Amino acid sequence: MATESVARKNAIVTGGSRGIGKGISLELAKRGANILLAYQSSRDQAEEVAAAEIRRSGVDAIAVEVAVNLKLPVFLIQASMPYFGKMPRIVHLSSAYARDGQSGCLAYVACKGAMESLTRSLARDLSHNYQATINCVCPGPVNTELWAATIEDPHEKEKWDFVVQNTPAAARVAEVDDSAQIVGFLAEGRSRWTTGSLVNANGGLLFV
User: What confidence tier does 66 reach under pLDDT thresholds 50, 70, 90?
Assistant: First the structure.
C-alpha cells in the first residue's frame, strides 16, 4: 500500500459475515477500509466477484478466512491480480493444528497445511512484480459459533477444557479480535517488511 493506513483502501474478506471473518471485516472497517464480503467456491464465481466489484477501484488487501480447499484463495488472487493497487496485502488464515495435527480432521488439516505452503510460494512469486506481501495467521481455538457447537458434545468439551486450561498465555479460548487485530496490522503499509510469514495467534499452544 502507498500509505501506512488502510483508510479508504479496498479489502476483500471471504467468509466475512461470521466468525473470524466477521471480526476481520469489522477490524478493517474500524481502520477505515472499504470492505467487500465474499465467499465463492468456483473459479467463475470468484472471477465475477473480483472483476465486477473492484475493476473500477482496484484491490489493496485480500483476507482469505474461509477455505476448505485451495480453489478459493488461488482463483480469487488470480482474478484480482489485474486490479491490484500499489503494494497489495494478502492474508490467509490457517490453524495451529496444520503443523501439530488433529485427529478426525484430515481434510481440514491437510488444506490448512497446503495454505501455509501456498503463502510461502506466493510471497516469492508476487513480491517483485506487485510489491505484494503475503502472510498467514494461524489461530488455535477461537470463541465462535463453530466453537460453541463443538463443545456441546461433553466428550469434546472435556478434551478442549484441558487444552484451554493449559494455554500458556491465559487459560481461555481466543477471542475473534486476537486474530483480527493481527490481520489488521498485516493489511497495513507498516507491515511492508513482513512476508511469507506464519503468524501464530494461539496463545502459545504451538510455538513453531
Answer: low
